[in-house]
Design a protein that fits this description.
The complex is a heterodimer of chains A (about 725) and B (about 210). With about 725 residues, chain A is α+β, with helices and mostly antiparallel strands. Chain A is built from 20 helices and 29 strands. The chains are: A alpha+beta (about 725), B alpha+beta (about 210). At the A-B interface, helix 1 and helix 16 of A face helix 4, helix 5, helix 6, helix 7 and helix 8 of B.
Chain lengths: ~725, ~210
């Protein structure tokens, strides 16, 4: 019978357990999709546009086709087609070596008719701007209005009017987008794909090649990062399969180069807001008016939640998506939330400064009374304030005069993170005592492989390393795509049920052959032993021998009560700013995070730390820089596109908020929440230190000095 | 930044320049702080009569104690030869231009970015990749595993190798020395806290 709660007492669940594939990864022996070299593999290299907007007048592959090693060419944008951004795909060459494929790409002759471009938001929003898409570059969403904001502004004790913005950033997956595809025979494809969704990738390959999805096997044993940008085969994957077909099934490998990865592999949209916020002198926010916009390149997707976290009775908001000649946005870790958090948390902080209120107190005063998260937030704020030393160290904005100024800031965030209830996990017990789990989910680094093994080991009284936790194969029982913090809450319940059912079946099957013919309900498992009425009777291995020839196999489904959704979380940041150079030094970050029942505290903590460091990058370093004149991205690399290194990491304190009532909620995902608030909290800490708002992210010396100069204080 | 090209500054750099063509050589050497000097010497060589090779050639590399032979082009990077021709796929290709360290290997004991080292320049040298490192209870790999100093794991080979190189040179690193020793590597999942602790733990374990 399916379970509706997790066990009260656990030996493994909620402890710190190293991930199963840790040594394989740390020894270089784990084979990533980009490491696979099936026999006869060809290398595919993509020709992409250097122009932000152009019509292909002609495309000549005749020279390229005859070059040494070249086996096939796939044209994506032929004559008459329009390329819409720097990095847009034109053609792909498959050759014996990568060097040969690159040479051939260079030998493809393309004549372009250069079209006027709008590669930045400023260009796209200008009067008479060239149209990126038909129907205009600025798409207004429906205005939201709640209450009577105008009346509320008239009655407010104080208000702020401000503008904040944060640029487009890219995912920078270390393993670039791509896959290696092979036609096994006339009707079957195998693909080794770097994906967050083996199932969706299989579907896409099947559909684009017109074969049944049951004839496609997508394999993702491990993969090198996705962050929301790898939910399908993409044009590169489907092209690899088409090219493989052209060369009689020889495998074709296409993984993007680093430049195109930045340009076309997805990005988080920008966000800009003009915002007014009004409140009473005791800190109750009474009204908000906001006009916001952002760009997702040639796609929509720049919407973000606002108001965010806080309850505001009267507000109006208009949002526009701005199209530019840039690579299209894709979901990126907590889509929309980091942007909404930056805008909301900046405004509330500035209002607190205007009203002379403590930033902690104004936040507490504006939580939604009826929201279950409010109590959680209040607890978390108290814990975080203590850990950062708020009482001792906080000084109101503008009270510091030295060159080096220290500041504190905070931000609240929230996320859903619930699971799907239609996923399955199979559990097979063999007579040699092998326990194998299978599901078509995949591990993008979050540790789901290990989480499933921990659950199984808990049920069978074994060690997680005793469990074969097999995922990353699209032909396994339906598993969850790794996105939106949904993997663990989707996969843990069916895994638990599969294991419970397999265990019960084992008991039923072997009970009659045990000494004293106990009933199945007399049996239990612990520490690698079978127990009869609580007394160790034989090893688990010996018990499994009694299964006989046929293994036990179950298919676990989800059941209510094991997973939940909806988390809060708060982060505090302590910085020192050099007001002469604009350099921000992070002293300390505190992350207090709830997420229901934590299965593996070690990998959970890694996720929170990783989220914080992702947010640190967003707050301090990251920016896609586009040259307005050429319309090209200027920093599609890993030096001018800056990311934190070891020396940039401050002390980070992670506090798991998990009183008993949290554990009772069941499993909730943790991938997104901890990355949301960090950049906002950093901005608030910097503004607290220097006495003025830095209105544009990230907190680079240039943006900090600009803010100081604007206020006439530099 | 770590000194990644120092292994190239040995006695046969002149031979290497002859064999591989000045343009390619310049590309390799520009990764270090010695850019100016190397460009000047490359220009001097260009003025001389330098043979430029093209096409492909057979070379033998000493990788993890084994002799491995492969057909390569003069421009083929050591990383690409290891990964694409010799099936040594531990080192990863990420930035492909000496920024991120995922391709880090050891050449004659020195940590090197293999994505900007030419394969032909590595002939006759001792190449070690992390596949050859100890993975036992006193190893760097073990410390990464225990501290969860990895998530997706794609940067991990580079960090493990950089850590190994650091500890071989400095068995007692301070926290600051560990950070500096790993500053040539970038992780996107954000595993630095575990990585740094792993380096400190490995240093202790190896001494015991």
């Amino acid at each position: 019978m399916a379970a509706n709660s997790w066990p009260e007492q656990t030996k493994l669940i909620n402890t710190r357990i190293p991930r199963l594939d840790g040594i394989a990864k740390a020894s270089g022996k784990a084979k990533y999709p980009s490491d696979e070299r099936p026999d006869g593999m060809l290398f595919g290299v993509v020709l992409y546009s250097l122009h932000p907007h152009a019509r292909i007048k002609s495309l000549d592959t005749t020279v390229a086709e005859k070059m040494a090693g070249v086996k096939a060419i796939e044209v994506i944008a032929g004559p008459g087609k329009i390329v819409r951004y720097h990095g847009d795909d034109i053609a792909i060459v498959a050759a014996e070596t990568e060097e040969q494929a690159r040479d051939a790409v260079r030998a493809i002759k393309v004549e372009y008719e250069i079209l006027p471009h709008a590669a930045t938001e400023l260009q796209a929003m200008a009067a008479n701007a060239p149209e990126v898409v038909k129907g205009g570059n600025v798409r207004k969403g429906r205005a939201q209005i709640t209450g009577k904001p105008d009346d509320a502004f008239a009655k407010a004790d104080g208000m702020i009017e401000a503008a904040y913005s944060v640029p487009v950033v890219t995912h920078v997956c270390l393993e670039t987008h791509g896959l290696t595809a092979r036609w096994d025979d006339k009707n079957h494809i195998t693909a080794w794909a770097s994906t967050q969704a083996v199932t969706a990738t299989a579907n896409e390959l099947a559909e684009s090649n017109e074969i049944p999805v049951s004839n496609v096997t997508v394999l993702t044993e491990v993969m090198g990062g996705g962050f929301g940008s790898k939910f399908g085969a993409d044009i590169w994957g489907t092209s690899a399969a088409r090219l493989s077909k052209k060369v009689n099934g020889r495998p074709v490998k296409i993984f993007l180069d680093r430049i195109q990865e930045h340009l076309a592999g997805g990005n988080r949209p920008s966000a800009s807001a003009k915002i007014k916020l009004a409140g009473t002198k005791d800190g109750k926010i009474t009204a908000m008016v906001a006009q916001t916009h952002g760009t997702g390149g040639v796609a929509r997707g720049a919407q973000f939640p606002l108001p965010y976290v806080y309850s505001i009775a009267n507000f109006s908001r208009e949002h526009s998506d701005v199209f530019v000649n840039g690579g299209n946005a894709r979901a990126m870790r907590a889509p929309g939330h980091p942007e909404g958090c930056i805008i909301m948390e900046s405004a509330i902080d500035d209002l607190a400064a205007k009203l002379g209120l403590d930033p902690v107190e104004i936040r507490k005063a504006n939580l939604a009374p009826a929201d279950f998260r409010t109590k959680i937030y209040l607890d978390e704020i108290a814990i975080g304030a203590e850990l950062i030393g708020w009482k001792q160290n906080f000084k109101p904005r503008g009270t510091q005069k030295g060159i080096m100024r220290r500041g504190l800031g905070l931000a609240l965030h929230q996320w859903g993170g619930g699971g799907a209830n239609d996923k399955q996990v199979s559990c097979t017990i063999s007579s040699d005592s092998t326990i194998e789990l299978k599901s078509a989910t995949q591990d993008i680094g979050t540790g789901i492989r290990t989480v499933l093994a921990i659950i199984a080991a808990e049920v069978f009284g074994l060690k997680p390393t005793d469990i074969k936790s097999n995922i990353g194969n699209s032909t396994f029982p339906p598993g969850q795509s790794s996105g939106g913090s949904t993997t663990t809450p989707s996969m843990s319940p069916p895994c638990y049920n599969a294991c419970l059912e397999a265990r019960d079946e084992l008991f039923k099957k072997i009970a009659p052959s045990l000494p004293g013919s106990p009933s199945a309900t007399d049996l239990s498992l612990a520490d690698g032993q079978l127990l009869i009425k609580g007394q160790p009777a034989m090893s688990f291995k010996d018990a499994c021998r009694k299964i006989g020839m046929n293994s036990i196999s179950t298919l676990g489904k989800s059941s209510p009560g094991l997973a939940s959704n909806g988390v809060g979380g708060v982060q505090f940041v302590d910085v020192t700013v050099d007001t002469e150079t604009g350099v921000v030094k992070l002293n300390k970050i505190v992350a207090v995070q709830d997420s229901g029942l934590i299965i593996d505290k070690l990998t959970w903590e890694s996720q929170v730390l990783g989220g914080v460091i992702g947010g640190l990058n967003y707050g301090m370093f990251e920016e896609r820089i586009v040259d307005p004149t050429s319309g090209r991205m200027l920093n599609p690399d890993m030096e001018l596109y800056q990311l934190a290194g070891a020396s940039d990491i401050p002390e980070i304190i992670v506090h798991a908020y998990e009183p008993a009532d949290q554990k009772k909620r069941g499993v909730i995902g943790i991938g997104e929440p901890p990355t949301i608030g960090t950049a906002a909290a950093i901005g608030n800490a910097v503004s607290n230190a220097i006495g003025v708002r830095v209105t544009h992210w990230p907190m680079t010396p240039m943006n900090v000095l600009n803010a100081l100069a604007q206020e006439g204080k530099a | 930044m770590r000194d990644n090209a120092s292994s190239l500054n040995s006695s046969n750099r002149r031979d290497f320049l002859r064999g591989s063509g000045v343009a390619a050589a310049t590309a390799v050497l520009t990764q270090t702080a010695q850019v100016g000097m190397d460009e000047a010497s490359a220009e001097a060589l260009a003025a001389q009569d330098v043979a430029v090779q093209s096409g492909s050639m057979k070379i033998t590399l000493q990788v993890n104690g084994q002799s491995m032979t492969s057909e390569v082009e003069p421009r083929s990077t050591l990383l690409d030869v290891l990964r694409h021709r010799l099936d040594v796929t531990g080192p990863k290709r990420v930035c492909d231009r000496s920024s991120c360290g995922a391709c880090t290997i050891l050449i004659n004991g020195q940590s090197v970015y293999s994505c900007t080292t030419l394969a032909v320049a590595a002939q006759g040298k001792e190449i070690r990749t992390l596949e050859s490192f100890d993975t036992g209870p006193k190893s760097v790999a073990h410390a990464f595993h225990q501290n969860d100093g990895l998530m997706c794991g794609y940067c991990t080979p580079g960090f493990v190798t950089a850590c190994q190189a650091l500890l071989e040179k400095n068995p007692n690193p301070t926290l600051e020395e560990v950070k500096k020793g790993l500053d040539g590597n970038i992780c996107r999942c954000g595993t630095y806290v575990g990585v740094i602790q792993a380096a400190l733990d490995a240093a202790k374990a190896i001494k015991v």
